[in-house]
Sodium:phosphate symporter (Halopseudomonas pachastrellae), 604 residues
Amino acid sequence: MSEPRSLPAPAALLRPAGLLLGLVVVVLLFLQHPSLAQLFAGVALFLLGMRYLEDGFRAFTGGALERWLAASTDRLWKSLTFGTLSTALVQSSSLITLLSIAFLSAGLISLTAGIGIVFGANLGTTTGAWLIALVGLKLDLAQVGMPLLVFGVVLERNRQARWRGTGQVLLGIGLLFLGIDQMKAGFAGLDQVFDLAAYQVEGWRGIALYALLGTLATVLMQSSHATLMITLAALASGQLDYSNALAMAVGANLGTTVTALIAALGANNAGRQLAAAHILFNLLTALVALAILPLLATLVDQLADWLGMQATAYTLKLALFHTLFNLLGLLLMLPLVPALVRWLPRWLPAPALASGEDLAEQPRSHALYLDEAARRHADTALKVLQQELRHLAATSRQVIASALYLPAEFRQDMTRERALSDPLSVPPLAEREDADALYHQHIKGIYADIVDFLSHLDCDPLPEQQQALMQLNLAARDLVEAVKAAKHLQTNLRKHVDSARPAMREGYRQLREQGRLLLSDQARREADGLSAEAEQQRSAAYVDQQQLFRSQFEQRLNQQLRAGELDGWQATSLLNDLHYLLESSANLRAAHDALSIPADLAER
């Protein structure tokens, strides 16, 4: 008899029912008031256009945008210029902010450069208000947008990333134009539904109310451009008072801090530091602008008169105000950049890397460099993966050293010459760490984060980047296999390291000595950063030494078997563990070789 099926929870029933009811209400409202439908459709098209525009520029990963970034951020003024011009080009300060967080998280730019880019992006976003005020509200953009949509759809279906990206950019611009046209039409007929002008609020109450309204609108739509477009359209149609529109523009800038905050949640500490600088910039700028809003409005009137604008050209005045208060933010924050570069790492310090001592007592290890921001671009994904693989390699060497019962002073610094000449003793039983437990505690979590990161990449890598990503994935697997081989070796080592037979003790001591030499060689190779030719020579020298050790070890085992110092069971245990050590060595060397591929790719 089958069990009775459990009834769904009331909340599960209410969700689709509530959504359906909401959709019905919206449809009825739109049928009754077509102007509202046009307004909201315009907002939806505008937001969709922003999404296509961002996706289109992201499709150029590995192209001009990233190369320009790397070449234009060695000075603060260059970073400011890059942030301003790139935001003016892509018309999305959110995209530039996320790009900066991703590149800072990957270590491709400095914190000073990242701050300069984000500050410049705030100034660059003002160009959108000028374009809309000068062109968008005066021309029939639908006539321009529809051909762009046709070309965009044709190109977007191309399989090549660059052509597809170009098509997405054209689609984005076309949808932006259609959205602006629909919002203009919606606001033009909105007075037949209700008059927003009747809800104007004077004085500081109005400033606070409309600043809050602009902030909420930007938070909901995740686009200050959309909020400014609505503000400009409402101002042009007479639905919004000029002073209220100024406060709403300040609120739109303040709402963009949520984008930075969301990006910071998925970034590493370097990304969080940059997001904090962005939030501080917008908060301080907004608070000062709101506090002196009447003075700024007077200054705008004087500049508008000097520039020959009409006194009633409120949309142009709003664009001028938007530029002025962002310039004010730069004047306030630029002198604080050196202090921010010093303070932010103290407020948001990077997590300390695991030391070589008491590995079992340290917290569970996870990825240090992987974050959501880096998933958006193949260049940043390669860079953070390379950093994370180095972290995994260092942790793997620590676990292997613990599996071989190597001394704590060696684990703290595997590159020291003196450590190799010290006699290798057996640690007390209380200091012997379990390799299987260390694998689950420190290796598996990092590897799981790497696999998850690779499976959720949000970009279209170029063929050579795909090859490099595959090599890094194989390198991660090689490191895991190296640790697993050491785990198997420790199974017998645990039994025989204190064996009553001198030949067994000496055999495992020699395996541990060879393991210490292996780990030291790998640590030095990573620390020295030799050229490809020097790396090959060094690797060949170690392989020759390892082959000599293997030959001598097997020859000694045969002699001990004939002399009766070991029996067949004990000899096979030593032979198996020799093979585990050689397997661990091969995997470590393969991972090290693969780690150099993304660096070579970046140089090319």
Remarks:
- Residues 36-193+216-347 form one domain.
- Residues 1-14, 353-357, 598-604 have pLDDT under 50 and may be disordered.
- The chain has two domains: 36-193+216-347, 359-603.
- Residues 102 and 374 are 5 Å apart (CA to CA).
